[in-house]
Amino acid sequence: MPHISIISSSVRTGRKSHWVALYFKNYIEENKLATVEILDLNEYQFPIFHERLRFTENPSANVLEFAGKITASDGVLIVTPEYNGGYPAALKNVVDLLYNEWHRKPVAISTVSDGVFGGTQVITSLQFTLWKIRAWTVPAMFPVPKAGELFDAEGKPTDKAALDKRAATFIKELLWCIEAKTYMDSKQAGS
Ligand SMILES: Cc1cc2nc3c(=O)[nH]c(=O)nc-3n(C[C@H](O)[C@H](O)[C@H](O)COP(=O)(O)O)c2cc1C
């Protein structure tokens, strides 16, 4: 079974996008699609990094733990809020921290906003940065408008059937990329 890490990117007091991260964890587990862990940037409380991990002498244990978890994940699902059309500094901080850890990593993006557009303006900037760092961004979207109305604090959706239908399509694309990468990795390892 593949392993997926969900990066919950908002460190804001009263954040709502974390509810979406909880929903995805529940959805993936309920449907036995993968093992899954939330990497909560609010729990890590990383400082603003002064250098990339590979050039850092004596990195802290939690930085190494985070990097190790990205490496060990078959795929990553980033849940990001939209802040003024962009993604939060806490997320850029950890994207830029790593390098080889992102290489060919299937990464799906779910965007979250207060407004009706579901954070769709975040997609281009985050996709571009992940492409630059050589991640494999999954061509599927999961915009969440009015997050506070669609989920409760445990990640339970108000309309489970509708959300699960959308999640099925979205997660299927991530799993396809994971499977394709696993196949190619094993093929190359054998050649
Ligand atoms: C600095 C900042 C900027 C924001 N800009 C937007 C925006 O441009 N459009 C929007 O719909 N919501 C915007 N929001 C609201 C967030 O999208 C909303 O809080 C949502 O729940 C996701 O963020 P959260 O996980 O931090 O709660 C902004 C919130 C903050 C804190």
Secondary-structure class = alpha/beta
What is the number of E strands? 5
Small molecules in complex: flavin mononucleotide
* Coarse shape: globular
Helix content: 40-55%
Rounded to the nearest angstrom, the radius of gyration is 16 Å
List SSEs in N-to-C order: EHEHHEHEHEHH
Major beta sheet, specifics? 5 strands, parallel
Number of helices, counting only DSSP H or I runs of 4 residues or more: 7
- Low-pLDDT residue spans: none
| Mean pLDDT, all residues | 97
Sheet with most strands: strand arrangement: 2-1-3-4-5
Q: Report strand %.
A: 15-25%
- Gap from first CA to last CA: 24 Å
Describe the overall structure:
The chain has 191 residues and is α/β, with parallel strands linked by helices. Helix content is 45%, strand content 17%. The chain has 7 helices and 5 strands, in the order E-H-E-H-H-E-H-E-H-E-H-H. Strands 2-1-3-4-5 form a 5-stranded parallel β-sheet, with helices on both faces. Helix 5 links the parallel strand 4 and strand 5 (136-141). The longest helix has 31 residues, at 160-190. The radius of gyration is 16 Å and the shape is globular. Flavin mononucleotide (FMN) is lined by residues 10, 12, 15-17, 81-85, 112-115, 147. Flavin mononucleotide binds at residues 10, 12, 15-17, 81-85, 112-115, 147.
